[in-house]
Write a structure and sequence with these properties.
Elements: H1 2-14, E1 26-31, E2 34-38, E3 52-56, H2 57-63, H3 72-85, H4 100-105, E4 110-114, H5 117-123, H6 128-135, E5 141-143, H7 150-167, E6 173-176, E7 180-185, H8 188-205, H9 219-233, E8 238-242, H10 245-251, H11 254-257, H12 266-272, E9 277-279, H13 285-296, E10 302-305, E11 309-314, H14 317-337, H15 348-355, H16 358-368
Parallel strand pairs: 5-6, 9-10
Antiparallel strand pairs: 1-2, 1-4, 2-3, 4-7, 6-7, 8-11, 10-11
Helix pairs in contact: 5-14, 12-14
Length: 371
């Protein structure tokens, strides 16, 4: 059964923390005019056959030929309605992945979309596009950073058609700047071969690996930071403390922290928020948090402190731990990007769009366990 194959390889890749974190990534499989795609709010590591949404591919194709408003909110609302209307009967309230239309563009049977730090060290770097051409043997299309959802799908639609016209072959790999990778194949084994080929090439090109061993941090200062953070966020807040060698290196000065102060991918916005706070000392935290709140309208989840590393703050243990995990992912990306000309975070325009996008708001609610 195709759903059994889809579930098995989704669980396989979803269980590897080098490839998937939290609710990131999605998968699909095609059976004639029907495509099964990961439902939004599910996790690849634990997904079951019921976690996929059956979609009508003919209706999905119509989305790419339809005219939508240029205004972001109006366009995305209409696209979401059409996406939900493309569900096959008896799918209940399951919401298809935002990348469903893009999945349907691939001619191959199986599609795997992931956001590995190793790959994003390339796609979130200054020289990533040029380096990819030299390092990756499998033919691919590089997609410059753009708004996700409909805009991304439309750009990929045009580029994949151009690729086929020029090469005579259907595209089976996309590298998305500030996002991740898509691979497609008619066999599950083919997915693994293509993905592993990319990962092997990148591993060979990386000049250094991030060091997440516990570093030499100022324990007294860290304890005072805990006290100050609880005074600001409330005694019931949950704080995850990360004093790794790498975190200490980035937190040393405002300049050294710069590469990780803005998000690299949508996942970092969903789980860590768009902006972080930085303080030289525990006495600077209140001012840094206040400035973040005044400028952005929310309290930061990540606070970097010189001599300590960083603190991830949330109302729940799950939220705090997930924020810490995703910020460590951002640190990994920044380190890997050093091998490709340095880090290249998302633009403010793109970050603002994702921050206010209903789709990502939905993902945030799902992460919190809200209905």
């Amino acid at each position: 059964m195709i759903l059994d194959e889809l579930t098995a390889f989704s669980n396989l890749y979803g269980s590897d923390e080098e490839l998937v974190l939290a609710g990131g990534g999605n998968t699909s499989a095609k059976d004639g005019n029907v495509m099964y795609v990961k439902a939004s709010g599910t996790q690849l590591a634990t997904i079951t056959p019921d976690g996929f949404v059956a979609m009508d591919r003919a209706k999905l194709a119509e989305i790419l030929t339809k005219e939508y408003p240029n205004e972001d909110d109006a366009r995305e609302a209409l696209v979401l309605a059409d996406l939900n209307n493309a569900r096959m009967p008896d799918q209940g309230k399951k919401r298809p992945s935002v990348e469903t239309v893009l999945h349907s563009l691939f001619e191959q049977k199986f599609v795997l979309h992931l956001h590995p730090a190793l790959v994003n060290g390339l796609t979130c770097s200054q020289q990533g596009k040029e380096a990819a051409k030299k390092l990756i043997a499998n033919p691919f299309i590089w997609i410059d950073a753009c708004k996700p959802g409909y805009i991304l799908s439309k750009i990929c639609f045009d580029e994949m058609n151009r690729f086929k016209a020029e090469t005579g072959k259907a595209c089976d790999m996309l590298l998305l700047e500030n996002h991740g990778i898509f691979v497609a194949s008619d066999t599950v084994e083919g997915l693994g071969k293509k993905l592993n080929g990319v990962l092997a090439s990148l591993n060979a090109a990386i000049e250094r690996q991030p060091d997440f061993d516990t570093g030499l941090f100022d324990g007294e200062k860290a304890e005072k930071c805990f006290q100050v953070i609880r005074e600001i966020y409330g005694e019931d807040c949950v704080i995850s403390f990360e004093p790794s060698v790498e975190a200490l290196r980035f937190a040393e000065t405002p300049e050294s922290a710069q590469p990780v102060m803005s998000p690299f991918t949508p996942d970092h916005i969903v789980y860590c928020k768009q902006h972080q706070a930085y303080g030289y000392c525990n006495g600077c935290i209140a001012g840094a948090v206040e400035r973040c709140f005044e400028k952005n309208g929310y309290m930061p989840k990540i606070i970097l402190v010189s001599g300590c590393g960083f603190f991830a703050v949330d109302a729940s243990a799950k939220g705090s731990q997930t924020a810490a995990m995703l910020f460590n992912d951002a640190i990994k990306i920044a380190v890997y990007a050093e091998s490709f000309g340095g880090a290249k975070p998302m633009s403010d325009e793109l970050s603002d769009f994702i921050t206010n996008w209903e789709v990502e708001s939905y993902r945030q609610k799902q992460n919190k366990g809200e209905s």
